[in-house]
Each structure stands twice: as C-alpha cells, then as structure tokens.
Amino acid sequence: MQTPTLIALALYFILMLAIGLFAWKRSTADSEGYLLGGRNLHPAVAALSAGASDMSGWLLLGLPGALYLSGLVEAWIGIGLFVGAVVNWFVVAPRLREQTVSYGNALTIPQFLANRFPDKAIALRVTSAVIIVIFFAVYSAAGLVGGGLLFESTFIDTPIMGLNPYMAGVLLTALVVLAYTMVGGFLAVSLTDFVQGCIMVVALVVMPLVVLFGDGWGTTAQVLREVDPNFLSWFGGLSTIGFLSAVAWGLGYFGQPHIIVRFMAIRDGGVKAARNIGLSWMFVALIGALGVGLAGRAHVEMNGLTLENSETIFILLANTLFHPFVTGFLLAALLAAIMSTISSQLLVSSSSLTEDFYRLFLRKNASETEMVNVGRVCVALVSVAAIIIASDPESGVLSLVSNAWAGFGAAFGPLIILSLVWKKMTGMGAVSGLVVGAAVVMTWIATGLNDSTGVYEIIPGFIAAWLAIWLVSLATARAPAASEA
C-alpha cells in the first residue's frame, strides 16, 4: 500500500477517535446519555446514523458482489429494502419515539417491551436480550469479515505485526470500533455514523461515475450483455420464489434493534425531517452500490483483470483506478460502512446485557456510573465473540448478514409493529412471537431449507411470528374475561 493511502486511512482513524473523545465529554454521565445520547439527536445525525448502521459493509461489499455475479436481478434486494425502510420511517419511527417515552422512558427495546407488557416483563426482557446478543455477535462478525477482506485484498500476503492481512484487518477494525464506542457511547456512535454516512454516499456516487465515464456507457452495457444476455434484465432467469426472497429483505427493517433504536433517540419533533433525509440518503446510496457492481463487472471483463472474490469489486476499483490518496479515501468509505454498523450493534448488545441482565438480576440499585462502566465491559465481551466468528476467512459477508437480518426481522419485526399499533396484543402473544420467529429462522438455516427450497428464511419466520402473536393474543385475551364472568 502506498504512503498517501496509508495517510488517508490514518487520518480517518484519528477522526473517529477524536469524535469518541468529544462524545465522552458530552453524554456519558448516565445510562440515558450513554445508551441514547439523551434522546436529543439532531434529525440529520439520526437519519444518517440509521442509514450508515443499516447498510454496513454489505452496501459496498455484499450487494455489489451479488450484482457482479448475477446481474440486475439482484437489484430487487435493494428495492425491497427501500420499500421496507419507507414503511419503517412512516409507521414505526414516530410511534416508537413516542411510546418508548410514555412507557416508562425505556432505554432499550427489551425494556420497552417489558413496560408495554408488564405481566410478561421478565420473559420478554431475557428472551429478547438473548436473541439480540446472539444475532448481533454474528452480525458484527460480518462487519469484521469485511475489514479482513479489505486488508487481505490491499496488502496481499504481506504479514502485518506477525499476522496474515486478513486477521490483522479483523483485529484492527475491532480495536478502533471498540475504542470510540466504549469511550463515547451512543453519541460517539451516532456522530461517527453521520460522518461515515457522508463518506459512504460520496464514494458510492464517485466510483461508478468514474468507471462509466472512463469505459463508456454504451460499451459497458454491451460488454455486460456479452457476459450474459440477461445480465441487465430485471427478471432474467428469476423465479417467483427468487423474486419474493429478494424483496422480502424489506421485512427485516421493522425488527433491527440497531436501526430502530435511532428512532428512540431523535429529539422531539424531529422524526419527519430525519425521515426525509434518511430516505434520500438511502436512495442515492443504493443506486451507487448497483452501479459499482454492474460497472465493475464490465471494467474487469474489458481489462482482463482477475477478481477471485466478487465481494471485493469495490476494493479492486479503488486500488486500480484512483490516485493513492483518493484510494485511501475510498477505502476509508468502506471502513466507514463496516465500522458504523459494528459500533451500533456492539452498543445495542451492551445495552441489553447491562439493562436486561446486570441491572435486572445482579445490581438493581447500581449507580449510573457503574452501569456505564459495565456497559463498556459488555461492548468488549461481545466484540471478542464477533472476532472469533470472523476468524474464518471463508465467511461470506452477504451470507452472514442475511442470516442475522432474517433472525432479527422475524423475531422482532411483527412484535414491534403489532405492539405499536394493536391494542389487543397480550404479553403471552409477544413472547410467543419472539420465540417462534427466532426458532423458525434458526431451524430453516440449520436444516438447509433456505438452500433446498430457495425461500429466504425471513419469509416463513416473519409469517409464523405474526400468526403466533395474533392467535396467542386472541386466546389469552379471552381467558381473563371468561374467569371474571
């Protein structure tokens, strides 16, 4: 790696750490400040923080890689996600912001559910916290895999501190994220997400435009059709099940704790502005990711380049087309995407461990200072688990993300929506939906049904959880009325 590239990356790391120190002085005095930034996030910060923590390395690695291999049909994943995000901002965001305050000023999703259904408070807090920690360990690992791939593709068999480039990338990414997350808490994560979101969208606009202007729009399209006549077809070779599985990614939005927690932190009256900013950012970013995958495939074919891992097309283009300092900026954009999501997930996992285990069972009267410090320890513990999972260099970013996304979407999606809009929902129904959604997804993956049927596991998981909540709530709601009669 050339010196200008290293300088650009070093400046990026320094900026992230500086933001962490700034946030440490502003919002880590109590649990509300450390976990939600005092519920006073500016709409723009909340919007880009939600977007950056949502899209992660998947936006610059997984999605472009899928398009690189299969063509435009993979764009349906992005379309499904955008539709899901629109519904999430309009239906979930305003209600969750209001109800988490009205139901006992809940600081975490499990705490909100417990306050919403007090008869099943312990079961909901423990079950949801376990699901959050398990799936976020996998999800965070996906981000660390992205960091490992970045270093592996850039340094190419050059040992770093005695480690192979992949593991060096995994560890360095984890350490920097740990530093600013442990020190600055939610405000640090949100402010770094805002900066990272700006870097990401600029990179996603610049890169495909440079490739297309350099290779020619018409030539690019011609080359892609030569690769496969259906490469630029929206439906070429796409089955009904394949289409439904692609757009079903949008169902996952309603149950992603690291995204919806941003709704809880927006300052009063800021949801509408945050929604407009967030959806605009997401639209541009997704278009850019599609461009990277498609234009990148044409560029590789035209120039006889070799790409062993399709998920590294962004890295290949950054290293071959730009000045080393600009390359450093583009690689920083990739690190930004990766780190923004990892930091959010670590903090949400930490909040569940501290509020829904430590305070609930071990130290009910713990001081605010103690809770903040315990939260920092929990951030470190979850990151260790993620590093262990990510130590396998064969791990695929898209596959890890898809599994965790489905797990959260099925377990929490129906639960969050119905708890906000359906007054007849009961505590037993909530617990049933949580358990059934997670169990169906894990069973679907473990038995290989996602591969053998082609049906994305979020579809059966989401449907089963919704039915479980509805049926069990109706059954348990009638029982008290009968006994009282």
Describe the structure.
This protein has 485 residues and is mainly α. The chain has a single domain, classed as Sodium/glucose cotransporter (Up-down Bundle), CATH 1.20.1730.10. Helices cover 80% and strands 0% of the residues. It has 18 helices and no strands. The chain has helices at 3-27, 31-36, 43-70, 75-102, 109-116, 121-155, 165-215, 217-227, 240-247, 257-265, 271-303, 313-321, 324-362, 368-390, 397-421, 427-446, 449-453, 458-484. Helix 15 runs antiparallel to helix 16 (427-446). The longest helix has 51 residues, at 165-215. It is globular. The relative contact order is 0.18. The chain crosses the membrane at residues 6-24, 45-69, 75-93, 122-146, 166-187, 194-214, 234-255, 276-300, 312-338, 373-391, 403-422, 429-446, 458-477. Keywords: Amino-acid transport, Cell inner membrane, Cell membrane, Ion transport, Membrane, Sodium, Sodium transport, Symport, Transmembrane, Transmembrane helix, Transport.
Secondary structure blueprint with pairings:
Layout: H1 3-27, H2 31-36, H3 43-70, H4 75-102, H5 109-116, H6 121-155, H7 165-215, H8 217-227, H9 240-247, H10 257-265, H11 271-303, H12 313-321, H13 324-362, H14 368-390, H15 397-421, H16 427-446, H17 449-453, H18 458-484
Short description:
The protein is mainly α and 485 residues long. The chain has 18 helices and no strands.
